[in-house]
Amino acid sequence: MTEIQANNGEIKWVSTSAHAVNINGRDCFLTAMIDVTERKKAEEESKKSIELFYNLFEVNPASLSISRLKDNALINVNESFLRIFGFTRKEQVIGRTAQEIKIWYDPEKRAELYRLLKEKDKVLNVEGQIRTPQGDTKMDFDFHAYHRS
What we know:
The chain is of the alpha+beta class. The chain contains three helices and seven strands, in the order βββαββααββ.
């Protein structure tokens, strides 16, 4: 992509292709330009949105996690999650379920929470207890979960 200035002063982004061709014995260039300004603007907005989400997710003081509803495997967690649950690296939890890493003090409470989440798409203010990987009961917490179909 190349940035160009149109006659009216407007800056546009174009995708350019050029090919050498011979026309009637003369060497020429065939050039094609496609205006991709709107696509470039959309990419920039998407990049800003991703950066905003990343910053809000990673530096949030609340423990945040994203997991797949079909198998409950963790896709991502933030630093607060690692700190609260006593993990040091994301690799210790990503791809595993909360049940596998044994963070719920009461596994039946976890099962009930996921059942409600599947039914209602949203669960708010559910209290529970968590434990560290060493098995220590850590604290009571309020659980908020959202399912997006």
